[in-house]
């Protein structure tokens, strides 16, 4: 299977002023495309893996015996980058589409939506260096919030990502420079699920 850059469900300027059009365009066409190109190059070397779902490959990465360790690292980094970004684009929108079931579950787990937002924001702002903040469903089926470095995907832990926020500088630096907390605060305005 050859992976392709997914089309955005909105224009590059649709998330203004929270996320600027230039950042969206570069992030989508350069960064995400770069992960896909490297992912395709490594998968091409292993025909037996080409028909497997990328999520399953990441969940079982260490069990893939025929793959060299250096190629596992490439798959982890670039497969994670592709999956993370594919989810990221879909969870944002210029208009809210609140997922009421998710909202109820968040309130059951975290007490209040504001408490969840505080916990998630701390994970995002507190991530040292590049990475992501995540709301996931863990192996027990419960909601959990944490951050992961680089392009590590929750699938590597056997978890299912629900909401992810890219806190690599390329996601916000053109508009926010070193003001990650301001970026995170404005990102909540374009998160369509809540």
From TrEMBL:
EC number: 1.15.1.1
Domain (Manganese/iron superoxide dismutase C-terminal) ranges: 100-191
Record-annotated Manganese/iron superoxide dismutase N-terminal domain positions: 2-93
Top class in the EC scheme: oxidoreductase
Binding site for Mn(2+): 27, 85, 166, 170
InterPro entries: Mn/Fe_SOD (IPR001189), Mn/Fe_SOD_BS (IPR019833), Mn/Fe_SOD_C (IPR019832), Mn/Fe_SOD_N (IPR019831), Mn/Fe_SOD_N_sf (IPR036324), SOD_C_sf (IPR036314)
One Pfam match: Sod_Fe_C
Family the entry assigns: Belongs to the iron/manganese superoxide dismutase family.
Reported function: Destroys radicals which are normally produced within the cells and which are toxic to biological systems.
Protein name: Superoxide dismutase
Species annotation: Candidatus Azambacteria bacterium RIFCSPLOWO2_02_FULL_44_14
């Amino acid at each position: 299977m050859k992976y392709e850059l997914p089309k955005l469900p909105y224009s590059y300027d649709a998330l203004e002023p929270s996320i600027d059009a230039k950042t969206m365009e570069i992030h989508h066409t350069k960064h995400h495309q770069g992960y896909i190109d490297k992912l395709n190059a490594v998968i091409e070397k292993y025909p037996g893996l080409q028909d497997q779902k990328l999520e399953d490959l990441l969940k079982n990465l260490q069990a893939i015996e025929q793959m060299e360790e250096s190629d596992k690292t490439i798959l982890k980094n670039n497969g994670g980058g592709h999956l993370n970004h594919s989810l990221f684009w879909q969870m944002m929108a210029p208009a809210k589409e609140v997922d009421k079931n998710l909202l109820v579950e968040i309130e059951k787990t975290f007490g209040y939506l504001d408490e969840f937002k505080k916990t998630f924001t701390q994970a995002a702002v507190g991530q040292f260096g590049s990475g992501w903040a995540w709301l996931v469903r863990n192996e027990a089926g419960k909601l959990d919030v944490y951050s992961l470095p680089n392009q590590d995907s929750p699938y590597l832990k056997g978890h299912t990502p629900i909401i992810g926020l890219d806190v690599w500088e390329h996601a916000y630096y053109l508009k926010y420079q070193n003001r990650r907390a301001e970026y995170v605060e404005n990102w909540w305005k374009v998160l369509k699920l809540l």
